[in-house]
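hey m, so remember when u said the tokens were messed up on ur end? i reran from scratch. heres the input so u can diff it against urs
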Amino acid sequence: MLLRRFTEADARALAALYGDPRVMRFITDQPPTRTDVESKILPRYLREYQELVAELADRGVDKPVIPGVMPVTSLASIPRMATMGAPVPDWMVGRLHEAAEAAGPDGVRRAGVELATELSRSLLEAGAPGLHFYTLNRSSATREIYGALGLVPDPISAG
């Protein structure tokens, strides 16, 4: 057996595999259903957020914890997100690939906005004091999420 240091190229290869539902189906059997996402996966993420807020409060931190949301609007962004330390969960990759097969790039964008809207709504309902959107200089998806949530931009910060 040959052992060597783990390289950045290895990390990129793993991120690409992690983001490929054809590979992940062998590991996870299949992408979860929408019901699984709503009943098991989203609650787990929300619980992690609430636990973080509680742990910080126990340590005397009384500042708001504002979760960040980055809508996935193209399949090409999935491996890049993983290399930046924010891997897209397998179930989400599966839904985005299904959207691509059904409706191409526009379907991926719509599915990404829907997923980010679901997550955002759940975070706000769980008590998040606000949301920070990573727009990557493409704010239209964020504006769609705002609209779907019934939110309006703050006129003071919107300038």
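this time it looks ok to me. The domain at 8-150 is CATH 3.20.20.220 (TIM Barrel). if urs says something different then somethings off w ur setup not the seq
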